[in-house]
Every structure is written in structure tokens, then in C-alpha cells.
Amino acid sequence: MNISIIGTGYVGLVTGACFAESGNNVVCMDIDKEKINKLKKGIIPIYEPGLDEIVRKNLNTGRLKFTTDLEYAVRNSEIIFLCLPTPPGKDGDADLGILFSVVKNIAKILRGLAKDEKKQLKKLIVSKSTVPVGTADKIKEMLNKELGKYSDKIDLYVASNPEFLKEGNAVQDFMFPDRVVIGVNDGEAEKILRELYEPFVRTGAPILVMDTRSAEMVKYTANAFLAMRISFMNEMANLCEKLGADVEKVRIAIGYDNRIGPRFLFPGVGWGGSCFPKDIKALMKMGEKNGVELKIVKSVYEVNERQKKLIVEKIKKHFGRELKNKKIAIWGLSFKPKTDDMREAPSNVIINELLKLGAKISAFDPVAVPNAKKIFGDKVKFAKNQYEALKNADALVLITEWQEFREPDFNYIKTLMRTPVVFDGRNIYNPEKLKKLGFTYYGIGKG
Ligand code: UDX
What we know:
Layout: E1 2-6, H1 10-21, E2 25-29, H2 33-40, H3 51-61, E3 64-67, H4 70-75, E4 79-82, H5 97-116, E5 121-127, H6 135-147, E6 154-160, H7 170-175, E7 180-183, H8 187-197, E8 207-210, H9 212-243, H10 247-255, H11 276-289, H12 295-319, E9 327-331, H13 346-356, E10 360-364, H14 369-376, E11 381-382, E12 395-398, H15 410-416, E13 421-424, H16 431-436, E14 440-442
Parallel strand pairs: 1-2, 1-4, 2-3, 4-5, 5-6, 7-8, 9-10, 9-12, 10-11, 12-13, 13-14
Helix pairs in contact: 1-3, 5-6, 9-11, 9-12, 12-13
The structure holds uridine-5'-diphosphate-xylopyranose.
The site of uridine-5'-diphosphate-xylopyranose has 19 residues, from helix 9.
């Protein structure tokens, strides 16, 4: 099939590369010339395991192309995927400005094509961006309005196809999805999308077909539910701490209940990233606008805001109120391992709070340092490796559980630090072992 991807950000690039990998001809479009020029040479703008390999392979075979020309992309494709950003607006609502302006431009291009072309055209426009419920209907309305009398010359379909990609595992998630959700309001769009996704569901994953509004709602519900599990466990962790219980034991035990399951129950320094915070804000707004008070969703958000600061409270309590002349080593800056993404990363809040208290920060992350430098500039000292960050440090704060931080040489660490204190923000270390080695250990929810 001939596919175009409008918006070659994180979701667009993964989607385009994976569709090319499954044998389609894909044109990825973006207005960012520098990004497109780099991609044409096989240089990937983000860190995502496995992505560079399939981009380069499909560039070489010619199945994957990059362009800044929207008209070229729209003209040469039967399926047009919208993978555009929908950032939170001033009031938390998803800002659809970019999406709608692109839809308008696409409509103008389609109008031009319909005018010149003798034969009947067929185009399927698929929204992959996370958008408020009802957006697919609005897109269809806008397109028809703009096409006017030419709408009869195009068989035009609009579908919603939310993505469930996890950063750091996106290629794998796309290639082997748990399920594919397709929102359509007609049989033809369903037929095309079923055929397109067939190679990805050979493992037996279902393709779930529903109306566009339900499909749009699936994405918000899934993300809010996952965030709820984490916020809930963070709340339980805080109580465990006061009551002398160990949240890790509680987590494992409840995870064996088939109705609960073991995943997304890990307490920590709070959730972040490009999806959860933005989607939860947008969901709250949707509730507000429609007169439905989403009490749980609101609490999920508030608990998380508080959680990001709790580790700072522990540090403050350990050292007394002031942190002047204290050197704090930070391990891990990205919002989770295997990504360089700093968006809404708990490290932003934690580091800023520590700086406010007068601490000196020395940080290390395996890949996120260039992005972190853009945020902190020279307010933070960035170390060349994880051990260098610890030289003369008064405490180590583990924020992101990268694999390379899991089994460090604690005997060596003790020789590097001024005082051997560990704040383990992800419960990855064994408290007993550390205490035996002479460390003071603080975890999350370990009473
Ligand atoms: C999420 C969804 O999982 C994905 O389906 C959607 O498409 C986009 O949003 P992502 O933001 O890449 O993906 O990260 P995810 O792995 O879901 O983690 C989100 C946050 O929750 C991270 O900050 C992570 O550290 C935190 N987390 C996750 C926990 O604190 N505890 C857990 O048990 C799991």
C-alpha cells in the first residue's frame, strides 16, 4: 500500500519505519527541514532501540522516503496517517491547532487533486495522534466543508487508530502489539486497515474494530488506568513507610492475583513522559467540559505531583533543612530507562528542588545528558560516567532505573563518596546488603 505519515516525530517515525518494514511504500513528511535532511541520510533524531536499523534498511530499499512537501506526500498515498503533536494548551486541554491547520492544508491539496483528476479518488485519513473524543468527526466535517462540490469526486474516509507505543520499546510494541484498535464509521476503512495491520497480528493479537469516538476514548482510558496503578502504589508505599511494612512485598503479593497482575505496580519517584501527564490533563478537561467530575483521575495526577517531591523531603530530613555545600549525585535523568526523553521527567522537579535548597548537583545518565543540558545548563555538573558523579558526594539519588545502575560496585562507591548515603528512588537495591556495607539507605515505601 502507499502510505504517507504526516508528522515525523516519535510516533510518526516509528509508524512509518514499521509500515515500510512490512512491505508498504511509505513517505514520511515533516515541516522541519533539518530533521528531514538528516533522516534522508539515515540519521535518527531520537534514541529508540532498533529504530535506526529499520529506518536505514528501508531507506536503502527505497520503501521509506522522507519529504517536507505535504502535497507530494498526500498525492502519492492512499492512506494518510496524522501523527502530529497535540500538546497541552494553557488550560490543560489538548491543543489541536497544529492538527487542524494540517487537516485544512490536506483538504486544499485534495480539492486540487479532485479538480484535476478525471477518475474517482480514494483517500483514507487516519488519526494516530492522541486527540479528544470527537476529533475524527471534526476532521471529517472540516474536510467535507473545504472540498465543497468536489467531495463527490473523492471516496473519503476518516479513521482513528490510537498508538500504544512505549518509549524505549516502541519498535517491538509496533511489530508485536497486544492489540490493534481501529475506530471507523464505515466498512471500507475497516477493510483497508485490517489488511494493513494483518502482518502485525499474526501472533494472534486481536484487531478491535469500533466507532471512532470509542477508539479515541480507549487511549485516554488506558493511559489514565496505568497511571492510576502507579499513583495508587505510590500512595500505598507512603503508608507502608509509616506503618513499618515493605511495599515491595505487598506489590509482589497483590500482583499474583490474576485480577490485578504484576505490571505497572512499581512505586517510585512518580510517572512522567510525553504521554501520561498530557493525556491525564486533557482527560480532566474533557470531564470538566462535559460536566462529569473525574475525581479519581484528578487524584491520580495530584498524588503524582506530590510523589515527585517526597524524595526531596527525605533528603532534607536526613541532612537537616539546609543543603548548602552538600553535593548530591544523581543517577538517571530521563523519565524512564532506554530513552533520552526528559519531558515531564521527575528528575526535573527533584533537581530544581535540590538546587533551591542550595545543593550542588553532579548528574549522570547514559543517554539523556544532551537533553538535560538544554534544561539545566551549567546549574548542574554533568559527569562523564556514573562513578565520576559520585566523587566527594554526600548522597546518591537514584532516579531512573537504567540497567547499568542496577549492580554497581558499592565497595568502590564507598571510597568515592564523602558520606555513604543512598536514596533509591526505584527500589532497585537491597537495603540489607547496603546497610552491611555501611551505607545509610532510603527506599520508597520500606518502613
Ligand atoms: C505510555 C504508555 O505505556 C503507552 O502505551 C502510550 O502510548 C504512551 O504512554 P511511555 O510514556 O513511553 O508510554 O512510558 P511507560 O513505560 O508507560 O512509563 C510511564 C511512566 O510511568 C514512567 O515515568 C515510568 O517510570 C513510570 N512507571 C511505570 C512507574 O513509576 N511504575 C511502573 O510500575 C511503571
